[in-house]
Design goal:
heterodimer, A: alpha/beta, Aconitase, domain 3, 2 domains, 14 helices, 18 strands, 19% strand, globular, B: alpha/beta, Aconitase, domain 4, 7 strands
Chain lengths: 414, 163
């Protein structure tokens, strides 16, 4: 069995599972946030349901903080109230769920995590099975602590070599999207392995697993290693087990990628599958840049951004908006002088939240505006007006491009 | 469960959940608030077209990306009675069943229907009859437990009935 099959089998109390088998698995952690939770809170109350485990059901206020619509303010109030009434931890405006779940020790290798957010697949970076679901199903899980699943077929991505300097996990993710297409992994698991993954920072691994859903995948996963063990020190006192794929594990398809040949990669507007080497779109002008989100709002992103930016200025026609994924990351950026570097260069530094990525608030794109963004989605209208355009890129490419006011290979500035 | 109605529109591949119910168009999570946002970025005439029929056809990977249950909810509250697509993305598929929006996957549906055709669809057998043309095709039959959730109003309704 592969990692995903082993985790699901264990959570279902079975010795073995096979693709397409429908099983019922016990959930280790489950969360919702203020945009999707309120859709079931009322019904949950009306039905008199109780929470299966108040230490394992978690709430986040992360999408619309501070709110820019009355509806968003009301949704936050409802979410906080639900937490108070049912005795649940609610992380309010402290950061994005996908950063806080691991930071707060809620993601452990070998466990099953579900959340009402499609990018819940991010935690595969820690060797956990994690996937996104909807509101109604979360009501069921909050009450019962279990969920039905169809065991997914598996795709294996073997990435050899090592990514070159200023080439990041995000570039690999975008390159993979061009191989699979936007639904090439629909219902499947994407397992990432090989020397390039091994040497990759956890932040880049999170970015890679985060993008799995953009190919339609149920989950993305990487075998946990000493980097994960190190990260979890001081964050949990629970015992956990690192799950590894068997040498004879079955995969529907194996992709072999030479990581050392990978170039900075950019997804052109419309879909993350529209990705090309940066050279193909170099020089494309734009006026808006976003650095942050659950895909690329972490220390690796801000450190590489600051390194490129040091002593330079953002292009006068570009507005670069920077959003850390959590309060801890924000604090660390202050300590390392990164915030000052960005401010000196002319960037706008914001509080941790999902930002304009989901198109809800905080820097939406107007008519015909073009944005280069470190986020995960670029379909028509995603970040604002349907006529606006989004190019997806790594944090290094976003910052390098913001300096020049046109899409730029970050390697050309170092 | 048998649904008989007209096809009001056929949509392309990769329509995302965001596009079906975009945050910028949703100002209240009430049925009305979601219904007015339905498909606005994709098709500004969506609600108008729903006057011509209640069966919607999608392409492949319908409802991709976001986990927002707003998407199938918006379609349901807008008045869609059946959604047939070549394929559904994973989360949208679960969400639609869990809220009781009738959906059917039929990989070759586009070869069998045109806008305005009247269909008779049996969700338990997956049979799609095109009354206008006389052609028939097949949809993927759901496992019995999912069909029951979908046709009895959704997941919480089945939970309610169990108690």
């Amino acid at each position: 069995m592969n990692i995903t099959e082993k985790i699901l089998a264990k959570a279902a109390g079975l010795d073995k599972v096979e693709p397409d088998q429908i099983i019922e698995v016990a959930v280790d952690r489950a969360f919702t946030h203020e945009k999707l939770g309120p859709l079931f809170f009322k019904k949950f109350r009306e039905m008199g349901l109780t929470i299966w485990d108040t230490k394992r059901a978690i709430l986040f206020v992360d999408h619309g903080v501070p709110p820019s619509k009355v509806m968003d303010a009301d949704l936050i109030t409802e979410t906080v109230k639900f937490g108070e009434d049912y005795n649940l931890t609610c992380y309010n405006a402290e950061g994005i769920s996908h950063q806080l779940m691991p930071e707060k020790g809620n993601v452990l290798p070998g466990r099953v995590v579900v959340g009402t957010d499609s990018h819940t697949c991010t935690y595969g970076a820690f060797g956990a099975f994690s996937t996104g679901i909807g509101s109604t199903e979360m009501a069921w899980i909050f009450n019962k602590g279990r969920i039905w699943m169809k065991v997914p077929h598996a795709l294996l991505f073997k990435v050899s070599g090592e990514l070159a300097p200023f080439v990041m996990g995000k570039d690999l993710a975008l390159h993979i999207m061009s191989l699979t297409g936007a639904d090439g992994a629909n219902y499947k698991t994407m397992e990432f392995t090989g020397s390039a993954i091994k040497v990759m920072e956890l932040d880049s691994r999170m970015s890679l697993c985060n993008m799995a859903v953009e190919a339609g995948a149920k989950n993305g996963i990487i075998e946990a290693d000493e980097k994960v063990v190190e990260f979890l020190k001081g964050r949990t006192d629970e015992a956990y087990e690192i799950v590894k794929s068997d040498p004879d594990a079955a995969y529907e398809k194996v992709y072999e990628i030479d990581g050392s040949k990978l170039e900075p990669t950019v997804a052109c507007p419309g879909s993350s599958e529209n990705s090309v080497p940066v050279g193909d779109v170099e020089g494309t002008p734009f006026t808006r840049a976003l650095l942050g989100t659950c895909t690329n709002g972490r220390m690796e992103d801000f450190r590489i951004g600051a390194k490129i930016l040091k002593g330079r200025k953002i292009h006068p026609k570009v507005r670069l908006q920077v959003i850390p994924a959590s309060k801890d990351i924000f604090s660390q950026c202050i300590k390392e002088g990164i915030v000052q570097t960005f401010l000196d260069a002319g960037a706008i530094w914001c509080n941790p939240n999902c930002g304009p990525c989901a198109g809800g608030h905080y820097g939406l794109l107007g008519q015909d505006e073009v944005c280069v963004s470190s986020s995960n989605r670029n379909m028509k209208g995603r970040m604002g007006d349907p006529s606006s355009k989004v190019y997806l890129a790594s944090s290094a490419t976003v910052v390098a491009s913001a300096i020049n006011g046109k899409i730029t290979d970050p390697r050309s500035l170092v | 469960m048998i649904i008989k109605d007209k096809v009001f529109e056929i949509y392309p591949d990769n329509i995302s959940a965001e596009q079906i119910a975009h945050t910028k168009h949703v100002n209240s999570l009430t049925p009305e608030g979601l219904a007015v946002a339905a498909m606005k970025d994709v098709d500004p005439d969506f609600l108008k077209k729903l006057g011509n029929g209640k069966i919607m056809i999608g392409g492949s990977n319908f409802g991709c990306n976001s986990s927002r249950e707003w998407a199938p909810s918006a379609l349901m509250y807008a008045g869609v009675e059946l959604l047939i697509a070549q394929s559904f993305s994973r989360i949208f598929f679960r969400n639609a069943i869990n809220i009781g929006l009738p959906i059917l996957e039929s990989p070759e549906i586009n070869e069998y229907v045109s806008v305005g055709d009247e269909l008779e669809v049996d969700l338990s057998t997956g049979e799609i009859k095109n009354i206008t043309t006389g052609k028939k095709t097949q949809g993927t039959i759901l496992p019995a437990f999912l069909l029951k959730i979908m046709t009895s109003g959704g997941l919480l309704e089945t939970l309610d009935a169990e108690r």
